Amino acid sequence: MKFYLVIIAFVLMSCSQTKDANIKHDVEEKYIDSILAQMSIDDKIGQTNLRGTSSRAKTLSEALKEDVRQGKVGALLNVMNVEFVDELQKIAVEESPHKIPLIFGRDVIHGFKTIFPIPLGLAASWDENVARSSSRVAAIESSSVGIRWTFAPMLDIARDSRWGRIAESPGEDPYLASVLGKAYVEGFQGDSLNNPTSIAACAKHFIGYGAAIGGRDYNTTLIPEPLLRNVYLPPFEAALDVGAATVMTAFNEVNGIPATGNQFLLKDILRDELKFDGFVVSDWDSTIEMIAHGYARDEKHAGELAANAGMDMEMTSTAYQNNLKELIAEGKVTEQQLDEFVKNILRIKIRLGLFDEPYRDKTNEANFYSKAHLDLAKEAAIKSTVLLKNKDVLPLSKNTKVALIGPLADAPLDQMGTWTFDGDKTHTVTPLDAFKSANINHVYKPGLTHSRDLSKTQFKKALTTAKQCDVVVFVAGEEAILSGEAHSRAHINLPGAQEVLIKELSKTGKPIVLVIMAGRPITITNIINDVDAVLMTWHPGTMGGEALQEIVFGLREPEGRLPISWPKTAGQLPYFYNHKNTGRPANKEDYVAMYDIPVGAWQSSLGNDSHYLDIGYKPHFPFGYGLSYTEFRYDAIKISKDTINFNEDIIINATLSNIGKRDGKEIVQLYTQDVVGSITRPVKELKGFQHVSLKAGETKEVTFKISSEQLKFSNHKAVYAAEEGHFNVWVGPNSSSGLKDAFYLKK
Ligand code: NOJ
Q1: Which of 317, 334, 316 is nearest to 325 (CA)?
Q2: pLDDT tens per residue, range 419-437
Q3: Distance between CA atoms of 556 and 434, rounded to whole angstroms?
Q4: Are 474 and 451 in contact, with CB atoms under 8 Å apart?
Q5: Residue 256 CB-half CA count within 13 A
Q6: Atom of ligand 1 lying closest to residue 105 CA
Q7: Closest CA to 316 of 649, 48, 664, 645
Q8: How far apart, in whole angstroms, are the C-alpha atoms of residue 324 and residue 43?
Q9: In sequence order, what are the residues at sequence separation of 6 or more whose Cβ sits closer than 8 angstroms to the Cβ of residue 663?
């Protein structure tokens, strides 16, 4: 095995840097070809098999060992016992026909042992460093138990908060998701994939999973090509640009063709346009699920469709294993196609360095929950927390006596959120733990035992406590199990009797700080007037309690901004800021509220534009929104030129002043609108953002640069270009406010 490394080193030593990549590639390909030349069809099919196992398995099955020995398995999922990992790898590299190492994969989504905020929370940091460090820590911890492949990052744009997997998503904006997607991949894969602490990333789910109708998981998606290219594709392009090693297909169909059997997606876009040279893995059973979709007749047909679409490795189902040989014999799939699958898979195994060092690097085993990792997790939680309301209550002064109430105030498991199989809840620092260790003057009475609790039996104790304290900190939310895969909700308010208890507490007259720990935006229109402050912490992970305590008492600022529009009600969904204008855009002047319509009114078209009579046309909080403990003012937007040519840049300046009494940090956002296009264009699109720290009283100039490259979009003929015309531009604190200017882009 070391032979491969020796050849590469020798060849590279004797050539210039510029040629290195090409030469390395040629050596890699020759090595792959030399292995492939010795493999039988059965051996090749074995490489395409990603075998699912149970992470709770107490014994290693003899049948699995035998399959590995015979070369029938290319990769394994969920083998979490390190002894099993070591034993299986030893069998693969010592006894299997071609001694090809296995890859061990796992859903390491927002941390392995040290749990970071859920991905939607990390997205609220708007901070690539947070994304990168979270995935780096996850890679260091998980690689020590043999995991060299994670099924992350999930890059599905999500526009419907009913969808449970919104928790795992980067939110609704393609630009923000691209910035984060790139950083996640860089963190997981490190400087080089063959570093023992690097794990292969998997950009998933290709593509459109977040567009599931009605937010119902696994549901149908209908995505016109311009929407696919302008909104759903960019985060994947960004991840592939920095070398994401693998891509996972999606469960859903896209415009009638399931993603796992979709040639247009997997061949035309992924391979031909994006030049992806890693491997494509199906999602769990998604190959055979093409039967239920009504696209494949049976398992064999499903295998044929997936193979002809270019799916390389099959997760858990066995359509390839059982049928590929016969399909090749019948000429329905060619052996060359199978060769391509195997080459794609071997390429990643080589890049991971598995042929040279197949065994796990144990040096980081002791690094689980290290101080450095916990500090990064706490920082991420602080940077992800979004302040949605603050009526002069936060931060609390040091001697405030706090009534700590609510079902999530001490919920170590739920605080970690979805996809945390490996996190140990005994390491979670809950708000209660943090209040205790910081010696906060507090009394803890949860009032409800869990988020769905409907019982009022503990209300009295909570109310009595509230009356005896200065302030109520009510930690509300959803249990972890209420978001994530297959956990969509039609109502997205606080479940159980939480709203009832909050209303009771508000009658005590004590100020209430509502803290929400949840996997999605939670509708709070019913209770917003009963509380004085609202902090969204998402499911904040292992260190969430400490982060919260420091924010509540003003040691730190809540630094996050919404990566998603926050709805007033589920009936408003899907909602996203970068929508189209329509022919009858909603506006203040024309808006007619339901209760203003005279009884017996003539059936004229009152209002006559695109809004709901009962809820209006705006979200509760817009995309990009988040308050600070200080106050910022934007002034004097200036653009460098009114007209620019296609090869010129435009410079946009504005001044930002901290007019409050505390130092603080703002996320300054840049949006544009392409006013007229060959297809209609969104009312606004995020094009850039900057984190700006300002001392109290300080003013800084903020500068953005836009080139015509950033104004490109894909139209109905799949032409990707910027078009001549007028553009509006905004610099501001969120997607619904800011200073406005305009320019003209000229051919
Ligand atoms: C199904 C999920 O959709 C996917 O994201 C995950 O990686 C696989 N299961 C493996 O657990």
Answers
A1: 334
A2: 999 999 999 999 999 999 9
A3: 14
A4: no
A5: 1
A6: 10
A7: 48
A8: 12
A9: 630, 693, 694, 695, 696
Q: How many CA atoms, within 13 angstroms, populate the side-chain half-sphere of residue 587?
A: 8
CA distance 614 to 241: 45
Residue 573, amino acid? L
Long-range CB contact pairs, 218-222, < 8 A, 24+: 218/251, 218/252, 218/486, 219/252, 220/252, 220/253, 221/252, 221/253, 221/254, 221/255, 222/255
Give 259's DSSP letter.
Answer: G
Measure the CA–CA gap between 457 and 497, rounded to whole angstroms: 11
Rounded CA gap, 180 and 129, in Å?
9
How many angstroms does the Cα of residue 623 sit away from the middle of ligand 1? Answer: 28
Q: Is 270 helix (H, G, I), strand (E, B) or coil?
A: helix
User: Are the C-beta atoms of 293 and 286 separated by less than 8 Å?
Assistant: no
Report helix, strand or coil for 10: helix
> What separation in angstroms does the CA of 655 have from each of 172, 452, 624, 632, 637?
28, 47, 19, 10, 7
pLDDT given for residue 635 in this prediction: 98
């836009």: which residue's tokens?
706
- CA of 396 relative to ligand 1 center, distance in Å: 42
Which residue, by CA, sits nearest to atom 10 of ligand 1? 284
Residue recorded with tokens 């943090």? 434
Candidates 346, 347, 26, 355; CA nearest to 11 is 26
Contact 623, 563 (CB under 8 A): yes
Q: What are the φ and ψ backbone dihedral angles of 21, each rounded to 5 degrees?
A: -60, -45
CA distance 747 to 741: 20
Mutate to test the pocket of ligand 1, among 110, 281, 283 (most ligand atoms within 8 A of CB): 283
**And the tokens for 658?**
């901290």
- pLDDT number for residue 7: 53
Q: Name every protein residue with a CB atom under 6 angstroms from any ligand 1 atom.
A: 107, 151, 204, 283-284, 485
Expressed in angstroms, the distance from the first to the final Cα of the chain is: 56
Rounded Cα distance between 731 and 735, Å, is 9
User: Which whole-number Å values give the CA distances from 724 to 491, 670, 744, in the listed order?
Assistant: 44, 20, 7
pLDDT per residue over 282-337, tens digit each?
Answer: 999 999 999 999 999 999 999 999 999 999 999 999 999 999 999 999 999 999 99
Give the strand order in the sheet containing 737-746: 643-645, 737-746, 725-734, 664-674, 685-694
Tokens of 171: 């939110």
Dig out the tokens for 156 from the structure.
């599905």
Residue from 56, 163, 284 to probe ligand 1 pocket by mutation (most atoms less than 8 Å from CB) = 284
Q: Cβ(612)–Cβ(648) under 8 Å?
A: no
Of the candidates 67, 283, 414, 674, the residue annotated as catalytic is 283
Residues in the chain predicted with pLDDT less than 50, given as ranges, are: 1, 3, 10, 12, 15
Structure tokens at 239: 């991840």
Q: Please tell me what DSSP assigns to residue 214.
A: G
At which residue do the structure tokens 């059997």 appear? 261
Q: Please report the beta strands in 427-500, taking only residues with DSSP state E, as ranges in sequence order.
A: 442-444, 471-477
In 244-401, DSSP assigns E strands to: 246-249, 253-254, 257-258, 279-281, 314-315, 386-390
Q: Please report, for residues 172, 360, 562, 578, the alpha-carbon distance to residue 622 in angstroms, rounded to integers and kept in the order given.
A: 11, 45, 7, 11
Facing residues of 106 across strands? 150
283 is known as an active-site residue: yes
